[in-house]
Amino acid sequence: MQEKIANKLPEITLIFWIMKICATTLGETGGDLLAQTLKVGYGVSSIILISFFLVTLTSQLAVKKHNPILYWLVILSTSTAGTTMSDYMDRTLGLGYAKGSLILVSILLAIFAIWKLSKLPLSVSKITTFKGEFLYWIAILFSNTLGTALGDFLSDTSKLGYIGGAVLIGGLLALIVVAKYYTKISTVLLFWLAFVLTRPFGATFGDLLTKPHAKGGLNFGTIGSSIVLGVILAVLIAVSYHKETKKTRLLRETILGVEA
């Protein structure tokens, strides 16, 4: 029997999805900044960012309660690492977006199969064991890596362009929202579908911000885009941290009032 822990994951609200898209877009621009603008390369960048992911993941697994700052640092680390990992597979190894996406889909399905066979709940609101949280983060790492490959496939290979890719994925996300409220499709399945799709949405939006006009982008560059997105995400994290602190304080006051 595994030792139970407190659920350390945030509530799935609208602000969660806004922050997720912001973090994944920043992951795209940040990963490209390191690998392309600074010319570190996809392989070395992946090693650096995976190391950053391991540091943030170890810290997240060690804490006893939800910490918004730490949680979103891990999300950001999976996003940046996912960007360079995907690019390394697709470009450096020459696998291409379609084949890279297929490999990543297979890996992600294998992770969910292991998770299911472990008899641990896939619902993020019911993750209360160390193993469950660990599988959650590994699934997120590969879902963000897959999302990068899908985003690049849509914006480049499919000829939809950055705006077309973003519109297509935005439409799919809208369908998921409709399915959540008007169908009996598993909310767990819909959550993970949305989680994967918000990554290519962020990837295509990130490319739209950074790429030159000649390639259909807005030419803001990786540095400028990363700074703006970093500031937006920092503000949203600060708001979440304030709400979490307020909720904890109210809960403590309620408990003390009952005990008194």
Estimate percent helicity.
Answer: over 70%
Q: What structural class do helix, strand and pairing data support?
A: mainly alpha
Number of domains: 1
Count the DSSP helices: 8
Average of the residue pLDDT scores: 83
CA radius of gyration is 19 Å
The main pleated sheet reads as:
none
Strand segment tally: 0
Q: Give the terminus-to-terminus CA distance.
A: 35 Å
Strand content: under 5%
Q: SSE order in H/E notation?
A: HHHHHHHH
Shape: globular
What kind of assembly state do the chains in view correspond to?
Answer: single chain
Q: Poorly predicted ranges (pLDDT <50, ≥5 residues)? A: none
Descriptive key words:
260 residues, mainly alpha, 8 helices
Overview of the molecule:
- This protein is an all-alpha fold and 260 residues long.
- The chain has one domain.
- Helices cover 79% and strands 0% of the residues.
- The protein contains eight helices and no strands.
- Helix 5 packs across helix 6.
- The radius of gyration is 19 Å and the shape is globular.
- The two termini are 35 Å apart.
- The mean pLDDT is 83.
List the topology elements:
Layout: H1 14-37, H2 42-62, H3 68-92, H4 96-117, H5 130-157, H6 161-182, H7 187-210, H8 221-259
Helix pairs in contact: 1-2, 1-3, 1-7, 1-8, 2-3, 3-4, 3-5, 4-5, 5-6, 5-7, 6-7
Question: What's the short version?
Answer:
This protein has 260 residues and is an all-alpha fold. The protein has eight helices and no strands. It has one domain.
